[in-house]
Write a structure and sequence with these properties.
Blueprint (H helix, E strand, L loop, with lengths): L8 H10 L5 H14 L3 H5 L6 E4 L2 E5 L4 E5 L3 H11 L19 H10 L9 H12 L5 H8 L28
Antiparallel strand pairs: 1-2, 2-3
Amino acid sequence: MKIKDPITKEDIITVMNGIKHKQLTQARMLVYITWATGAQPCEIVNLRAEDIKKVGEQIRIKFKSVIIFLPLDDEYVYELWRYASSFPLDMYLFWFFRGSRNDASNMLYWFIQWFKVINRYVYPMFLRYNRLTLAAKFMTLDEVRLLRGAKQFKTVLSYFEKSRRGTVTLTKEHLE
C-alpha cells in the first residue's frame, strides 16, 4: 500500500515532543520505533530489552519476522538504545501499551490522540505502510520484501506501483 503523504521524521519529532503521558519516555520511544522500523505493532509491543543490542555504531532490533539495524548517530536511536538498556533483559519495553491479549490494541487509542498535534489521523499500522513507502524510494524490490518480512514479491509490489490495491484497505486520503 503506497502512502501519498508520508509521515516525515520532522512530523515524528513534533508528535514525540507533544506527547503528554505518565509513561513519557516509553510513549516517545514507542512512536519512534514504530515509525523508524515499520515493524508490525504486535511485534513492537512484544519487544524485550534483550531484543535490542548495540552492534558497533548501530543497534540491532530483533523482531519475530525481521532484524533491523538503525544507526546510533541518530539522537533518537541513541535514546531508544539507552531506554532499552535500562531494563532487565527479559522485560517488555512497552509494557504499558500491551493489550490484555498481549497485542497492540492499546496502541490504537494513544496513536490517534498523539498524532492530533500534526492534524493527522494515524494508527500504528499506518506507520508500517509509511516506512515501506519511504523505503521503496531508495531500496530494491528484494530489499523491501526482506524489510517487510515477506516471502513473495507480489506482497510488496503495491509500494512501487501507483496502485490502490493492496493487502489492507486504508482510507482514500492516504492513498496515492
